[in-house]
Amino acid sequence: MRRWPTPGGLALLPALVLLAGSALFLGGAGGARAATAYGPPPPPVPPVPGGFVAVVTSVTIGPHGGTIRPVRVGVLLVSLRVPSGAVPIPVQITLTAPDVEGIGDAGFPGFDTLGGVGVQVQQNGAPYPGVYLKPFVLDLAAASISRHSLVVNWNGTRFVTDPTARLASQSAQVTFDTAPEDFAVLDPEGPIKGATTAATGKPLWGEGILAGALLLLGTGGLAAAGRRRVGR
Questions:
Q1: What pTM did the predictor assign?
Q2: Pairwise CA distance, residues 118 & 135, whole Å
């Protein structure tokens, strides 16, 4: 037997239809807002050339500071000094090695990567937040480093020259107050521009002749002086 809606039920129908319509409208509006808010994902962060993922050493250093003694990272001898008061709590400092071939010229034509090192600083397993109270000092040593070398670091999108770098014969030093940092040392390809042939280990003929003449004159002078002393 068919049941007909009661008058009370009939009275509720318009309200139910109105509620259903409102829900559909609000859902559509919300969907529209969601669609409006939605956009393409941000571009992925480019990976660091060379990776800098091979762990070389990991040391805990506290507020009193400390030093990671020279460790070999590829061809580089690397040491890191954390001044007293640089960090207010103990941190875990990890040095990593890159794949040098993956770095290539690091975006600097005419140069080749000699070596590199990464520095990670963590607090309770997470990257250390903020800036160090005093800069860390990183020393790099290798026979091939010269004043013509470059020290570069990764800024998140590319390698840039490090403004703090101090270069000398066979050594380089940089300072930094945040991490992670990924450094690479670049050497010029081939002979150094503007240098004489003697700088490459192949002396010019003129320079060789002059050096031989001076040597002979010096030897002759010494022999004459010796004869004079003997004569007396």
A1: 0.65
A2: 16
